[in-house]
Amino acid sequence: MRKSLLVLLLWAPFAMALVPPPAQRLDLPTQQAIQRFLLHNRILDTPQDLDRAPYIIAADGGRVLGANGDRVHARGDLDPSQPHYGIFRRGRAYTDPKTNELLGINVDDIGTARFVTAGDLTTLALQRVTQEVRPGDRLFRAQSPVDPATLQAPLSPSLIEGHIIDIPKGVTQIGVLDAVTLNKGRRDGLVEGQLLTVIKTGAIVRDALKGDPLKLPDVRAGTLLVFRTYEKLSYGLVLSASRPLAVMDRFKTAHQTQ
């Protein structure tokens, strides 16, 4: 009996280490912010992903532009079993701020369309448009929604550092529940559910007495939750911010910033 108890006591720490950490507990506003963002924003890993996608030919009746409620015709590999498609247009190309490597292509949300009939020209009915649909706009299947149960940080994340490189909604200051684009992705080890600490670089000031420039200390300014990863880029949601965040603020994996 004593030997069995001793074995259990010795094994307990190892058994606990094998238990995965709980998933991030996301409240309803946080979940809604993520899902709304993913409806309107998407990244493609390469320009070829855009070039190969099905595309709009014309609106019904041969008209050039399509508006809400119109039917449009498209060419390309469209799946009749996929009832809804997103319509996107090429947007900003993201490059790494240090190496200038192409990291991915942002595609701008134009709207959504419902599959109607298949053929050499596929017919779709526009359901939601943010602006007029044009020939050449690309069609993509809807992104899978984020399941809060899958947002689980790794057991021992390695140190990952990077920068916020964009605020897709176009503002300059970032606050709680805003989504941002990060210049690191799956290849760098980021996973969905990873928590990151945002660090603002200390300002350069001049010593009024000696006249030499001095850098103020860096300060922690907020926390990000990685909710969608791509090969070289990721989206993060601001969970907390002690001051306004901005493009080019740095981030680190949260437990490494102690």
From TrEMBL:
Keywords: Signal
Statement: the UniProt record of this protein carries the keyword Signal: yes
Residues spanning the signal sequence: 1-17
InterPro entries, per the entry: Bact_Kbp
UniProt name for this protein: Peptidoglycan-binding protein
Species annotation: Pseudomonas poae
